User: What shape does this take?
Amino acid sequence: MTFLRVVVYYNGEFGERVVGNLLNYPGFCISCGEACTQCRSGKYSGAEDIVAVVEMPDPSSLGDFIDDVEPLLPAVPEADIAIVINVHPDILFGLLPKMKDAGIKGIIGCSESPKDMPMGLRLQVSRAAEELGLEAAFSKPFCAMRPDPLKPNIAAFLKRAMIGEPELEIVLQKGREGKDVIAAANVIRSAPCGSTWFVAKRLIGVEKDDPRLHERISEAHHAYPCTASMDRDPEIGDTVLHRAGYIIRDKVEEALSRAVSG
Assistant: This one.
């Protein structure tokens, strides 16, 4: 698969989760504790792709507007894709020309809380990036991001990194009383934080038509845990956390609808 150089600019716990999931280093996921079966081991690693990980200042510590952003702009190494998570908008706009000069082809960002990159700002950043010839993709939450064939560099990265809107492949087998039971749940694409792997593992042994299936998915999603905001977001009419939970539930249902009994 094509080698893609990636630089990550982030602040906060969610950014740390995304970086850890991309690297997939031993011990990153500890959700199963002593019951860990190393379900992610050897499946993928973006270690060879990541050229820099830069921790940025907390946007809330900088105020709404920055008069002189230049001293706060970090270096931008030569790369193909830039991921930005919880970066102050003024810094982000200041970084765009530097990204262009560094050869970056696509910028990826997300909103995990109502205050982080609201829709108007996402549109402004996307337009500014596209005017510079950069592909841009932003979503709320990050696990709502789908590969877009009109943005081939970003789509190639999402495929290589196995992140974005979750995608699962489920295998069923006949259990007691001839009911279909989930025998395997394979992760094709995970939520960027890595939670899809834990949800998939928690599905094993559950009957396809179990009325508690949604509850099992929700419990796993919360136990990982999802770090999206629990504050109501007027843009989506719900909390970002709930939106993320609905996404993984729907994706499990889609996988079950495609599954065949072994």
Remarks:
- The mean pLDDT is 94.
- Helices lie at 13-23, 89-101, 119-131, 152-161, 195-203, 213-223, 240-258.
